């Protein structure tokens, strides 16, 4: 739709402002839809609703700066060069189920504010939660045709996805989800020569150095692991703790984790919900079982967890000690309430452990020596590293995305808007002599 790309920044801002007002007015409805359609707790649904508000407000505030054209200096006599940013055109966004409102909003709002039109394919598991944002944009006055929504059944998703990517009108793709599916999406984009932004899985490590505040580190671990039952791409996967403080850290962690319980009807902050499906629970149980078979020690949890194939979607919290990188649980995204602890002797050992992973999304380091923690953070191959905090952190003003198998490209704010524009150069030359060929 050519008209949308020519819409003024002021008009775009007004629409985004109306969308945020709509979210505030329909907050209870949105939270209710998320909790009914997915395994999100009310706390998780409130978190992603608030995050969506902040993302939209930030996108609306940075649009002028992000889309500002530049004029090149007098690099050549008699020539002025304008460096502009233009939308791609039609962007195809593919949204997941685990934060259905926030991630669908991000998938459509970022390209729209940059002047693109969007086709959103909802998750087969959470179509209603994904669709609410489209309704809000329509109610805010977004012109017809700017945002379009596709629903399809799981069995038809591969064919529908390739058909849309292959369409000549589609000029860019964004996908948030697993690394396995992201690889397929990336391959299709390569086949049809379409640029793509991929925000994929992670196996975030939290490093606890010997001078860390252990009580604080444990609090960060609990939030980073058990929020949303570990079903977040930035969830803490591996704990790398210095051997000199490992016993004390594990004692505190075990004490605090033992108070948590997985429940179908969580009614306090001591309860976590079940996983998305029985298949999700089975996968986590198998990862834990593999680790125990290969020599990991069970600190907390069911020692017969590998045999729990018919336990529905509930997985009680698990802590494993003495995990090695030969164990599947240390290399794969767990996506559930299990923690893998590895004891380390040096900073070098921790850095090597993290960088051997194929993933590169998020991580955390706990130390009272900030200079030391910064030196470690700079050497870790992850796009988000948090010192004395937890691995889950997404803020509207901070570029969000991954490295390596965790994807590429960025969402959020200034960098997010620029991600969905392409550079165009226009030069103006004074009328006069033209250099002869061969000079």
Automatic annotation (TrEMBL):
Residue intervals of the Aldehyde dehydrogenase domain: 3-426
One Pfam family it belongs to: Aldedh
The entry's keywords: NAD
InterPro entries from the UniProt entry: Ald_DH/histidinol_DH, Ald_DH_C, Ald_DH_N, Aldehyde_DH_dom
Single GO term (MF): oxidoreductase activity, acting on the aldehyde or oxo group of donors, NAD or NADP as acceptor
Transmembrane segments: none
PANTHER family reported for this sequence: BENZALDEHYDE DEHYDROGENASE YFMT (PTHR42986)
Similarity comment: family membership: Belongs to the aldehyde dehydrogenase family.
Official protein name in the record: Aldehyde dehydrogenase domain-containing protein
Organism this protein belongs to: Hydnum rufescens UP504
